[in-house]
Amino acid sequence: MLDELSFWNVGGVSHCSLTLSPGLTVLTGESGAGKSSIVRAIELLAGKRAQTAVIRGGEEEAGVEAVFVTSLNFDDLDKTLRPEEQSLFARRTIFRTGRGKAALQGNSVPLGVYARAASRLLHIQSQYAQMELLDPERQLVMVDSSGGKESAELLSSLRRAFEAARLQERELRALTQRRAEIELRYANASEILPLVRKVNPEPGLENDLTRQMSDARDRSSMLGKARQNLDRLTGGLSEQGILDALKNASEALLSIFSGEERDHYAQLLHEGMQSFREITEDAERCLNAVEDVSLFNGLETRLGALRRLKRLAGAETEEALLAYCADAKENLEWLEGSYKELEEKTRQARELRREASRLALLVREHRKATAAKLERGVNSLLKELGMEQITFSIRLHELSKLRANGADEVEFLLTSEQRCGRVDKIASGGELSRLLLALQLALPDEWLPPTLVFDEVEAGLGGRAAVLSGLKLKELSRRCQVLLVTHEASIAALGDTHIVVRREGGESRVEVVEGQARQREIARMLSGSPDLEEALEHAQKLLEDGGRELPES
Q1: By C-alpha distance, which of 419, 420, 401, 403 is closest to 411?
Q2: How confident is the model at residue 553 (pLDDT cuts 50, 70, 90)?
């Protein structure tokens, strides 16, 4: 429960310190007196994101601090932040600059951590908090909360099975994705790897092959020119060459000589022609020996194969190609070995999903029984709250997709002689207020936070309905601490503790009232004047009766 509350510079209150008690505490005061300032302070305490507009005019900061007495465990908090001797100290400060600070047990914490802890201790229910009734997820939690230990155990088993199935399916998707990526990345590996063994790539091979081919091409060009010149000398296979022409021309030239001189020149000519023939024959032999194109073709084939390998592997360099081949070998071996793992994970995922579906069906059947029980409890309470002509019902819708909390969606309905439909479509504000109160009373204690703050929940209710709601709030205060801001005198008379907010000289004053001071405040609420004799008598009767005097329906 909220044991001590202090706040400063919130709204119209410069400073306020209160010691609160168990049971029902009512907070009253004239309109504009500053009751909303206390609500704003409690909202800060609860971890709500604050606006600088709540800071008192002329001040640079506002804050709230409180001591909660609690037996709750906070295992999700660091040990230094947990309650000591069942006491938790919380402090929140906001500044005009927009900055803020939050602390638990005197240690600074992020607002998110602070708010999660505060939400387990304190809940504020204003007129707008009734909107939680319109949230299907919240409705589902309400139904499950009324199912007791069996519901909690079933849901826990379902969540474990669902998470196990989801984890297994996540791993299966990762395995399948990796297999697909490897198959895509190394789709050409079956063609690349055998070719690599033939090409035998090594760093710089393409440049070496390109250089060797360039040298071979230059050599081939030189040899081609030599062949042309040799053919010109010899005439090839069918034509007369330069040597034949030279022989014929020389022999014709010998005719001008005679005798020994002719024989001498004829001998020289023969020897010269013989030398030319020896040269051409040796040249022919050399050309025939080196004109084999297989070397060039081999270089060209290897270079083409290397470039094709790079293209297939998407590699820019021989190093990248070799790395690709090493990775391909390793990944393809893994791919082959992962098929059994794929089959096993597929089987496990199927079994886990089947188990989760089985548990979801059990949860659904239990929810049907729980919903029927909750309907009966709420309808009984609605009658006590003056809603005899309205019936509350819960409808379960089956979802096609399994979730961690099952495969159901909940819908809250109201039915009367004139109308029937979802609460968010047909319920008035007063009906929502009483319905939420009935649900809080019907749900187990585990559903309730240690402290509940109600901000004018009787707004929109008539006199009798408001008093009936007050009586149920009194009943609720036996199960948790209830703080109630109210303008209804008959409800205020029900309080175990009565706090009054007054406006004095531009300052809001907050004090606990008892005895005649409380009687005068009730009288003011009844008539507008704290001194009217009839109002004082009525106030005294309300206080003596504990506020149970009901207006006629």
Answers
A1: 420
A2: very low
Residues facing residue 482 across a β-bridge: 24, 452
Q: Cα separations (Å) of 298 from 38, 202, 207, 308, 433?
A: 94, 17, 15, 15, 93
Say whether 409 sits in a helix, a strand or coil.
Answer: strand
Burial status of residue 356 (CB atoms within 10 A of its CB: 0-12, 13-18, 19 or more)? buried
Q: What is the pLDDT of residues 371-385, one digit of tens each?
A: 999 999 999 999 888
* CB distance 9 to 62 below 8 Å: yes
For 6-35, write each residue's pLDDT tens digit.
Answer: 999 998 899 999 999 999 999 999 988 888
Q: What is the DSSP string of 70-124?
A: -----TTS-GGGS-BTTEEEEEEEEETTS-EEEEETTEE--HHHHHHHHHTTEEE
**Identity of the amino acid at 76:** D
Nearest to 13 by CA among 37, 32, 46: 37
pLDDT at 461 over 80: no
Q: pTM value?
A: 0.67
Query: Would you place residue 325 in the very low, low, confident or very high pLDDT band (cuts 50, 70, 90)?
Result: confident
DSSP for 508-544, please give it.
EEEEEE-HHHHHHHHHHHHHS-SS-HHHHHHHHHHHH
